[in-house]
Design a protein that fits this description.
alpha+beta; five-stranded antiparallel β-sheet; 5 strands; 6 helices
């Protein structure tokens, strides 16, 4: 039965295809709502987080590729440790703590080992995997132990042998809370 108030049913009954009707019911001009610059990047690009062991110098070379990063110097002692002397404690760093003055102090700081949580797109993480100065730790939710070298570097924070990345992140979170694993 035909309903006269619906144009499309009459047209389809007469043999017209649905393609002929594609724009007839579009009351909103959608072209105004489209992006004018088709090559523009999205406001919220897809990024992922991953833990790495590296040096400040290597981190500084790649820092422009990261959406965000947080790091902790590994020559540090845990906050409640009595055995740490004042010169052994290095403050936890964030993404803006690269040395600015050239010289011996800068070269010593560039070789400081750090644990870093890097948020970046796939290209940034692929570039870090190709760089020998970066040791990627397993995904925090994978039940894979971290390497012996990583465990030895993180032992000052209470990371036990055979610990996973999740365990290590929880241990270093006492010194730098932003290094704790978070899903969102």
């Amino acid at each position: 039965m035909l309903r006269p108030y619906k144009k499309w049913s009459v047209l389809l009954w007469r043999g017209a295809s649905a393609e002929h009707l594609s724009g007839s019911f579009d009351f909103v001009n959608r072209s105004k709502h489209r992006r004018q610059d088709a090559g523009a990047t999205y406001a919220h690009p897809m990024t992922g987080k991953r833990y790495y062991l590296t040096t400040i110098g290597a981190w500084h070379r790649h820092a422009g590729r990261f959406a965000n990063s947080h790091w902790l110097a590994l020559g540090t002692a845990s906050p409640g440790s009595d055995s740490a002397s004042a010169q052994d404690i290095t403050p936890a760093g964030t993404a803006c703590c690269a040395p600015t003055e050239p010289g011996v102090a800068a070269s010593e700081a560039d070789s400081t080992r750090i644990l870093v949580l890097i948020e970046g797109d796939e290209g940034a993480h692929l570039a870090l995997e190709d760089d020998a100065a970066f040791e990627a730790l397993p995904h925090p939710l994978a039940q894979k132990p971290i390497s012996e070298a990583a465990q030895a570097a993180l032992a000052v924070f209470g990371v036990a042998p055979g610990a996973t990345t999740f365990d290590a992140a929880e241990a270093v979170a006492t010194a730098h809370p932003l290094l704790r694993h978070r899903v969102f």
